[in-house]
Amino acid sequence: MPILGGIGERLRKERPFDGLTLAVRIHVEPKTGVLIRALRDAGARVIAMGNKGTTNDPLAELLARRGR
């Protein structure tokens, strides 16, 4: 996810999503965790909903703790 990581750096500086709430229904796994963090770093309040069979539970817990 190096491309998304680079985009995340720019979003962190510009914060284009300040004040917005974004909801995503996504498989919560390491690569999508990078996307969730990038959206959060861009200023959004992110609500991420995973699927029972495809969610990496430890990662979901980590994202929840760091998002507060």
Structure description:
It is built from three helices and two strands. It is of the alpha+beta class.
Radius of gyration: 12 Å
User: How much of the residues is beta strand, in percent?
Assistant: 5-15%
Q: What ranges have pLDDT less than 50 throughout 5 or more consecutive residues?
A: none
General shape: globular
Mean pLDDT: 87
* Structure annotation, total helices: 3
List the secondary-structure elements in sequence, H or E. HEHEH
- Helix/strand structural class: alpha+beta
Strand ordering within the main sheet: 1-2
According to DSSP, the number of beta strands is 2
From the N-terminal CA to the C-terminal CA, the straight-line distance is: 24 Å
Helix content: 40-55%
The main sheet comes to: 2 strands, parallel
